[in-house]
TrEMBL record:
<feature type="transmembrane region" description="Helical">
    <location>
        <begin position="94"/>
        <end position="111"/>
    </location>
</feature>
<feature type="transmembrane region" description="Helical">
    <location>
        <begin position="71"/>
        <end position="88"/>
    </location>
</feature>
<keyword id="KW-0472">Membrane</keyword>
<dbReference type="Pfam" id="PF09685">
    <property type="entry name" value="MamF_MmsF"/>
</dbReference>
<keyword id="KW-1133">Transmembrane helix</keyword>
<protein>
    <recommendedName>
        <fullName>Tic20 family protein</fullName>
    </recommendedName>
</protein>
<keyword id="KW-0812">Transmembrane</keyword>
<dbReference type="InterPro" id="IPR019109">
    <property type="entry name" value="MamF_MmsF"/>
</dbReference>
<feature type="transmembrane region" description="Helical">
    <location>
        <begin position="29"/>
        <end position="51"/>
    </location>
</feature>
Amino acid sequence: MNAQDTNSIFGTADMPPVPPASEEKTMAILSHILAIVPGIGILAPLVIYLVKRNEGSFVEFHARESLNFQITILLAYIISAILIIVLVGLLFLWVLPVVNIVLVIVATIRASEGRYYRYPFCIRLV
């Protein structure tokens, strides 16, 4: 197992060869942090992805990761709501917001450092 495999297991990726510009970092940070604002969770990373995807791979990567993670969280909420019938969903409805906030903060920190970050447990649809 090499360093790349180890990093992908723990939800991180190697440093980019060229550090991203300040504006790229800012947009990458916004794509993560705006995702936890109620009501715009999926919309913010989607808009950033659609507007900035051709301008830089760093912003595109982070916006895509944030969008995929928010879609995964939304699907988990839907499944949890269905599982409320058997009471298991209640536990998930308490855990999901905490997991969402913690992982978004970690991703935001990584983006501010100019590093690529892949969310663990994320369905990659985009």
